[in-house]
Structure formats: structure tokens, C-alpha cells
Amino acid sequence: MTNQDWLVTNESQCIPLTVVSQDLQEDSCTQPYRLYRFLTDVEDILWQKTDDRLRLAKICPLVRRLLNSSEWILTSFGLPDRETGWSVQMLYDEPDFALTVQTVAWSPQSISPIHNHATWGIVAIIRPLAELNL
Length: 134
Ligand SMILES: [Fe+2]
Known about the structure:
By secondary structure, this protein is of the alpha+beta class. The chain has three helices and four strands.
């Protein structure tokens, strides 16, 4: 996994993102970093920080930690639809709570036109589907 995180601006500029490491508890290396802890940590950051760039700098390491710790997420995806070339698996979505966590699987060679979700988000590219030998 490449360790560089990138910030893509509204102007489509890609800027290397300097992340802010979290102080980890002593047992954090031996205990799984579970999805519910990730969500709580992200919510804490959203309450504490108002600057979106700083929020992303603090949340990106948590995403990396979650993916490294929760192997089940790496296999929690649906096979891409034959027509659209992609699938979405919702891992977390709660009414009246702004965070969602999804895994999206794309078929090789599938493309998505440039579009805007009108909010920030974090995309972690896990692995090309072709490498999974499905
Ligand atoms: Fe999108």
C-alpha cells in the first residue's frame, strides 16, 4: 500500500496531504480497530475541527488503520454489475448521521465520468479487482 495520501481540490488539483497522526492507546497495536471505533473517532474529529482540510488530514490515517486492522472490510464487496461495471456495498449508513462507509468494486476498464458529490469524502483504493482472480 502506498503511504501517500492526496487531497483533490474542487479545481481537480491533486496535492500531497500531510496527515496528522493520532496518539494511540498502548493496546492499540494488539487490539483490532473496529468500525464502530473508527466512526466514533471520525465524529470526534468533526466536532473538534471545522477546517475540512485538517479534518481529512486527521481522518486519513484512521482509514488506513481501519483497513489494516479489519480484514473483513477487504472482502466486503459485491461483484460489479455487468452493465454498470461497479457495485456498492454499504457498510454503515444511519439516518440523520452524515457519515456513510461503503466499499465500491469496479470492473477492470470501467470508468466513471468526473462528478461531484457536493461534499468531501475519503477514497481508499484497496486493490485492483483483477488481482483477486475472481
Ligand atoms: Fe462518485
